Amino acid sequence: MTDEAPWLVVGLGNPGREYAANRHNVGFMVADLLASRVGAKMGRAKRAQAEMAEGRLGFGGPKLVLVKPLTYMNLSGAPVVSLAQFFKVPVAHVIAVHDELDVPFGQVRVKRGGGEGGHNGLRSMSKSLASKDYARVRFGIGRPPGRQEPADFVLSDFSSVERKELDFLVDRAADVVEAVVLEGVEWAQNKYHGS
């Protein structure tokens, strides 16, 4: 059943126009791009406080359920678990796409399981799913400059220099998600971690 099960790809972020371009919202950006790649549009989910889109990767490929929780970051787990239950998605088929302070800007990393590194969206997902064994596509935003608090840094917009590369990096993160779905975490690590 696991191989036929859909994949739940969760872009983490905060709802609202004031957060749209924040570093913390890069998961939303990747989810939107993936939706356009599979020819779907994000719409309000009936069963959870989230926007979602459904589509297939390639002709007859694996089904993707793309989700942007609308609960604010620290409550992301509730809509994730309701949609995972509704679509019968095992934890092994859940992928969280999120900003990562411990990865330099310009790098995208992937792993399965592990800690949350202080990320409230991941903490909420792990608690609601009662498991940490889902895949994470970690979009590097680097550490805040000087003495800026990490909480303020993640809720600020990308710099003008970073914005020049942002589209390319969001595109790469979407490629990494597709690689995890089609080939697995280890394959995606081998392909994308060297660059």
TrEMBL record:
The entry's keywords: Cytoplasm, Hydrolase, RNA-binding, tRNA-binding
Annotated compartments: Cytoplasm
Catalytic activity: an N-acyl-L-alpha-aminoacyl-tRNA + H2O = an N-acyl-L-amino acid + a tRNA + H(+)
One MF annotation (Gene Ontology) recorded for this entry: peptidyl-tRNA hydrolase activity
Enzyme type, top EC level: hydrolase
Location, primary (coarse class): cytoplasm
Sites annotated Stabilizes the basic form of H active site to accept a proton: D99
Site (Discriminates between blocked and unblocked aminoacyl-tRNA): N14
EC number: 3.1.1.29
Residues reported to bind tRNA: Y19, Y72, N74, N120
Active site residues according to the UniProt entry: H24
Pfam families noted in UniProt: Pept_tRNA_hydro
A cellular component term, taken from the record's GO annotations: cytoplasm
InterPro entries in the record: Pept_tRNA_hydro (IPR001328), Pept_tRNA_hydro_CS (IPR018171), Pept_tRNA_hydro_sf (IPR036416)
Entry's family note: Belongs to the PTH family.
Subunit structure of this chain's protein: Monomer.
UniProt-listed NCBIfam families: pth
Job of this protein: Catalyzes the release of premature peptidyl moieties from peptidyl-tRNA molecules trapped in stalled 50S ribosomal subunits, and thus maintains levels of free tRNAs and 50S ribosomes. Hydrolyzes ribosome-free peptidyl-tRNAs (with 1 or more amino acids incorporated), which drop off the ribosome during protein synthesis, or as a result of ribosome stalling.
UniProt name for this protein: Peptidyl-tRNA hydrolase
Gene: pth
